[in-house]
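Predicting holo structure, S-adenosyl-L-homocysteine bound.
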Amino acid sequence: MKSIRLREGKERSLLRRHPWVFEGSIAKGAADAGETVRVEAADGRFLAWGAYSPSSKIRVRAWSFDPAERIDASFFQRRIARALALRTRLAIASNGQRLVHGEADGLPGLIVDRYAEVLSAQFLSVGAERWREVIADALMAASGAARLYERSDASVRGLEGLAPRSGWLRGDGASEVEIDEHGRRLTLDVASGHKTGYYLDQRDNRALLARLVRQLGCQRVLNCFAYTGGFSIAALAGGAREVFSVDSSAPALARASAHVPLNGFDPALHQAVVADVNAHLRSALAGGEKFDAIVLDPPKFAPTAAHAERAARAYKDINRLALMLLRPGGLLLTFSCSGGISPDLFRKIVAGAALDAPADAAILHRLEGAPDHPTTMTFPEGEYLKGLALLKV
Ligand code: SAH
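Done. Tokens:
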């Protein structure tokens, strides 16, 4: 077993059970990609077992802080069993669930979503990559799923020196799947959809939209960055009579349109608009349009805090336009999935947008990702999705 010795004082974050060791913290030691190493303080004291990553700035990701634990097949079986047990206890109202959420489930670099009988997984670090076969076997055995598709095609793999890879890892067949989310039917394709196929993190916020649309009597709803229309179907379920799904992806919107009759709604109630959201908001404003509810769920504008300033301007702009397009009493569900934007900063950005609109708005709810995407005490970086439900005054 190789050892990685940290510089003096650099043991603090591991002692607080934060799972990352940055390259600048290491005094000496090296290992192969994904190899399990013993991380020790400057005085030689044990800190963690971790996976070494020669090419990443995050040089070690900790598997365990227990000196007695062995990193072997049974370790991965235990961690996966623990992650699945948590989901069982959460009583999630869907057969689409995030089973493993990386660091928050003690499995850095591993993302696994379950879509009915199909698992869709991302191996995003050399540590996860090294144990890929063991992890695949453990996932199949613990979940009882029939098939496992690999979507290791995210760009972050490049930082780990890993090439993209996707395809069936266990079983094969059609990559098209249907899930049930809060009683609504949604289809996705694990091979060609975004990320692992779908955005499960917004599940409960979609259900909230359905409730609020019903409660407030919203008729005309604009769903921006709609992807496959999860929020659009929720709006229809809430009783909306005119729903617009805007996205730059035509295939995603084709699926959104197909979801309307699949859920028993009249296709005439829904319009798919292939457009840039920014341009669409401006032309709607120029055309004097008004909406009773608007959803803004943009992609990650700020992957890290370094991009926060430019991202803040982009968030502010779309929120300002949305607030201008809302009728008084209208509902805005606005989100940021940027790790570099804190919930507090996001609230300030939206407040700035309201000031510029000008509009005032009451915060009905502070929103976050569904609980199968947990944020843990030791890994605040895992907190990425935040949002606000606002009522325009
Ligand atoms: N709200 C969706 C998830 C949105 S993900 C859901 O509930 O499932 C972000 C979406 O924004 C993607 O579908 C992407 O195609 C789209 N997108 C990214 N940039 C865009 C732009 N400038 N204009 C329109 N859509 C954009």
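The chain has three domains: 2-64, 73-182, 199-392.
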